[in-house]
Amino acid sequence: MKLLNETLEYIEGLDREAQEKAKKRLDSRMKPVESLGKLEKIAVQVAGITGRVFNSAERRCHIVASADNGIVEEGVSSCPVEYTRIVSEAMLNKIAAIGILCRSIGADFKLVDIGIKNSIPREYPNLYNKNIARGTKNFVHGAAMSTEECVAAVEAGIEMIRDLKEDYDVFSNGEMGIANTTTSSAVLYGITGAPLDDIVGRGGGLSDEGLMKKKRVIKETVEGNNLLKGDPMEILKHVGGLDIACMVGMYLGAARYRKPMLIDGFISGVAALAAYKINPHTREYMIATHRSEEPGVKVILEELQLEAMLNMDMRLGEGTGAVLAYPIVTGALEVIKNMKKVDEVYDLFG
Ligand SMILES: O=C(O)c1ccc[n+]([C@@H]2O[C@H](COP(=O)([O-])O)[C@@H](O)[C@H]2O)c1
Ligand SMILES: Cc1cc2nc[nH]c2cc1C
Q1: What distance in angstroms lies between residue 79's CA and the mean position of ligand 1's atoms?
Q2: Is-contact 321 312, C-beta < 8 A?
């Protein structure tokens, strides 16, 4: 609890002076004012995060949190539970989508085992063993995690950023966990109370019957335990997952250590929203990247008042959308650094 409390205490808002300077610099370049749209917003935001007008996004770190969920017993996913471990290993071996995208875009890849049921039997230099429990409990029968487990998972996420902050300019996150769209939808329902039809989707490809069951267990558990619009940590502990809690910690850590954090699709987005509800300043450090096909993304982005920059019809998770956005962030930071003022361009070519 010490690291979490300390982190919350140290989180501050953006550096307004650096943002002003960045805005002034952009407005004085040879282009119509604000004509680079979201690129300019990113450049100004990152200036506010670091306190410097010139920044880089070359040193990129993508972190996947992997964990299993007890709620899978209820038949809310179309995928077998062992996929969590197997796909995680495929990622570590760069044969799963996220490994391939990280390599092609130039982002380092790390995977945290925060609660996989069947442990990864091989060693990898970029595997972080922070397993808190071999999966959560089935939330139909009681809280998915104890308070201690939930706090430990959040703190593990904070630690990841704390321990890697000197080596990287920008972070992104993603997850792997069968039934994660159930846990994340339940957290989103608990936080917002938005209509279930706007929140709950088919995840990895659920049947009509499975979808009805998914909505029912979420509604009954959230409402039956008086979680609707309640305390975000209580919601997380009761119906969340260890990987979602770990990503919440990454967002808190990014805000504390003043690093930009790219939000991926639905599940990473729910973690971002929970972090925002825990400390509203965290939003200022987030960059929304991809609009996942899961319906609840709309609810998340509205609550966060953020816009995603890509719509690639993806719904894989793993952080695949976030990683695709790295070149855009680099573009924004290069533009503010290298564009010339009108008189400088006149001196050259006028
Ligand atoms: O984050 C998203 O946008 C997203 C949308 C749909 C599915 N997923 C991935 O699919 C898995 C969860 O699907 P499910 O049906 O088992 O809940 C989990 O490993 C996620 O990474 C992820
Ligand atoms: C194959 C597969 C890969 C995944 N990656 C993230 N979630 C996933 C779910 C499935 C089913």
Answers
A1: 10
A2: yes
